[in-house]
Amino acid sequence: MASVIESAWAYLITNFNDFQLACLGSFFLHESVFFLSGLPFILLERAGWLSKYKIQTKNNSPAAQEKCITRLLLYHFCVNLPIMMASYPVFKLMGMRNTLPLPSWKVISTQVLFYFVLEDFIFYWGHRILHTKWLYKHVHSVHHEYATPFGLTSEYAHPAEILFLGFATIVGPAITGPHLITLWLWMVLRVLETVEAHCGYHFPWSLSNFLPLYGGADFHDYHHRLLYTKSGNYSSTFVYMDWLFGTDKGYRRLKVLKSDACEAERKEM
């Protein structure tokens, strides 16, 4: 497996230069993973499939879904792509490389775990600040236009928010100067995580059912349903920051009430 990956990587670095891989390659990879993972949730909602796993009964209209996709394409090409291109000199300065040999899986996994932990810490505080009155009204309210989120709404946000919270995503790689393949893996996992958190479905196979500290769709869906001053659940991936600072109390109370109601139903049966 390692030899196959190295052969594929050798082809890439032979046929494309550093800038093409780091900027255009990263952008193409992001768009592919984001839309391929997010679009199925639009189809599920429209067709009504797997509705028993849907967290909210309300559905988004086709017009609202199409508006989201149109705005996303505008933001991605006019905001995300220029940011990736502008960030290239910074990452080169910080030591990013794309040469062979590839880093070991131990190095890659350690760095990616570090990125998740650091991103979660920074994102929590940035997200909490965005829920202050002025910033919510003028910036973050764009993201909350969708009280019933679906996968693609994960990146539907005001351009200022894209810049503000995007810092949380890139600061880890900027510190460590990773190999490009590590950066790509981090980007893919982060995209899949945020799409899942906004998907609007809580499946039996959802990671939050197996990883105690993982938030997932049920955790973040609660955040979208409530008014900005009472929402809580500000974390991106894990739940420990909300637990430490008590910003998940409403969510935990709701979980207890649901659990008690289910237990009462079982006893009646």
Q: What does this entry show, briefly?
A:
By secondary structure, this protein is mainly alpha-helical. Helix content is 67%, strand content 0%.
Describe this structure in words.
α2 (18-47) runs parallel beside α7 (180-197), α3 packs parallel to α6 and α7 packs across α8. The N and C termini lie far apart (52 Å). This protein has helices at 2-15, 18-47, 62-93, 105-130, 133-138, 159-176, 180-197, 216-225, 240-244, 249-268. The chain has ten helices and no strands. It is mostly helical.
Secondary structure layout:
Blueprint: H1 2-15, H2 18-47, H3 62-93, H4 105-130, H5 133-138, H6 159-176, H7 180-197, H8 216-225, H9 240-244, H10 249-268
Helix pairs in contact: 2-3, 2-7, 3-6, 4-6, 4-7, 7-8
